[in-house]
Specification:
- There is one protein chain.
- The protein is about 60% helix and about 0% strand.
- The protein has a single domain, classed as Cytochrome Bc1 Complex, Chain D, domain 2 (Orthogonal Bundle).
- The protein has four helices and no strands.
- The chain has about 120 residues and is mainly α.
- The protein is globular and about 35 Å long.
């Protein structure tokens, strides 16, 4: 009985610790990537500070079905898909790989479920 309780407690701690580490590393590393790639120069995570569309606003407007479209916007820039806001030209911002763009887009779109 004592062995079962200890095993269960240990397994619970390991699972909880792993889940917390994964959540923190996912959010923290993606936020750091957004800062490194200069996304935060124009965008904010929430609508608290009005600038270009916030990540929350983007998450509310688009769904996971739009991910490929948004990855292309991150990679190539664009205009006319959010009022008069325009992504800076590629030479005016940090280079982003397709893998990084997909990670950023998925992170942003995951914000949709956090606000619902």
């Amino acid at each position: 009985m004592k062995r079962t309780i200890v095993s269960t407690a240990l397994a619970s701690c390991l699972c909880l610790g792993s889940a917390m580490a994964l959540a923190e590393s996912h959010g923290k590393s993606t936020m750091q990537l957004a800062e490194e790639k200069q996304c935060m120069a124009c965008h904010t995570a929430s609508d608290d500070v009005p600038r270009s569309p916030s990540f929350q606003s983007i998450a509310q407007r688009y769904t996971k079905d739009d991910a490929d479209k948004l990855v292309q916007v991150v990679l190539t820039g664009g205009e006319d898909h959010w009022g008069s806001a325009k992504m800076p030209e590629m030479d005016a911002r940090a280079e982003v790989s397709e893998k990084e763009a997909r990670k950023l887009v998925n992170w942003i779109l995951d914000m949709r479920s956090e606000t619902e």
